[in-house]
């Protein structure tokens, strides 16, 4: 029986072709790694996928920062319109950021740069959402990083 299995696997590809079925390819390469069959791994595509994972986490963090900034700006500039949905959105963005940083703590060092990049987009969205003139908002982010991430901070 073992001999038949060996003969059968000799005729089967080591792993599905990258790009044809990503999930099957990923599981097959994970199996090959666990079996320490390094010569059969799709090294170039594995490296590419790992880099993509890192970029994806960074994009998710930037997106949550942008939403957080947007809603803090609208919260600050339109106190009469504050409601549970804005509060939930702010809490959710903070929780998502916290979760990402717990899984990828190396991204924490990039937050200042990411805030600087996210703020103009958040500002643009805040102007659109509120209908207020741009002069109603600070031209650059005045929130400190510790404030942004603190559940106790409500401007």
Short description:
This protein is mainly α. It has helices at 2-11, 22-34, 43-77, 84-103, 111-130, 145-149.
Please give a structural write-up.
Residues 1-12 have low confidence and may be disordered. The protein is elongated and about 60 Å long. It is mainly α and 155 residues long. It has six helices and no strands. Helix 3 (43-77) packs antiparallel against helix 4 (84-103) and helix 3 (43-77) packs across helix 5.
Give structural attributes.
elongated; 155 residues; mainly alpha; single chain
Secondary-structure-based class equals mainly alpha
Tally of strands: 0
Sum up the overall morphology in one term.
elongated
Q: pLDDT under 50 segments (min length 5)? A: 1-12
Number of helices: 6
**Share of residues in strands:** under 5%
Cα distance, first to last residue?
70 Å
Order of secondary-structure elements: HHHHHH
Average pLDDT reading? 90
Give the topology, please.
Blueprint: H1 2-11, H2 22-34, H3 43-77, H4 84-103, H5 111-130, H6 145-149
